[in-house]
Fold this protein.
Amino acid sequence: MNFRLSFYQAIIGMLSLSTITSCGHQAAKEDPQLSLLIGTYTNDCDSRGVYLYRFDQQTGKSIPVSHCQIENPSFICLSPDRKLLYSVSENHDAKAAANATEIDLKSGTFGVTHSAYTSSTDSGGEDPCNIWTDGRFVVTANYSGGSLSIFALNDHGTRPELHQFLSFEGLREGAISHIHCALPTPDGRYLLVTDLGNDCIYRFTLHPNAQKGEPYLTDQTLVFQGETGSGPRHFCFSHHGKYLYLINELSGTLVVMNYQDGTLTPQQTIMAEEVPAHGSADIHLSPDGRFLYASHRLQNDGLSIYCVDSISGNLTKQDYQPTAAHPRNFTLTPNGKYLLVASRDNNKIEVYSRNPESGLLTLTPDSICLPKPVCLLFAEVPSSVNR
């Protein structure tokens, strides 16, 4: 199999989330046991970095298994083969880094971590807040640096080495670039990049077969210009890849866009925040694609819940679920039965049961308490694991 084909298959697998994260397709025989990986902030608290729990997606119960000492791993992702955990070290200085950590989901253990700085100079790569990999390259979105760092991996997926660095300027007077998220399109051809400071989304052509000295990302194109001060943050695609859903951090709005051949066409904008807190954060679809959730923090912390029209993809407000303080990243179990919210300032992960017909949430007593949780990631446990 050529690498390009395997790359596209990996992209499709990650976007449909058939093996990890919140939007996975349920297997014919559901395995209740999941690995729950948790990224945290480690500054000014006793957090040890990345934590691994076993989570039962039938009961909502969890048990701690292990942890890995990494500085400020505020965003994490897994390699396509789930043998490596990639994380950022979100530091506001030259120590900002991307990390590759060996992981064994069967035993629940971590191995060696290899790190590389997000910039080859003393500045430009500060505060990496998002990380993505295709198994051959790793990309970090650097918020304060206003940049993208692209790392090449060795044959084992370890030892990231800075391969390409892209810096962004303000598009209008007084604007400062803040790159927040970089994810591939469902067709595997492009990488979409949100720039919160410039209120826009860029598109890059992906080159998965790039060799040393060749760019991994080319053809920078502005594909969406939002309203001034809106602050594009995170996005997700519908399962069939036709619609993109964008959460704007500063304006608190959701934008529904049609996606086709690298082009984004806005078709609906709807207010998501209930108060002007300027702190909207994350966005996910339910595994069946019928409901969309978005998190909001700083005031009236909670999740807005929307019904998704199966024909047009447009949204209708369903409810607003209050949560603990500062809900950032959240995720859903692959079977859609539970939704977990990382509430940074209450030092806990709330576990909500979810009504599959209405999409509404009910808080359970099974919260996970640990310092400053900010990123959640589910992964299937190999079937041979001892329970």
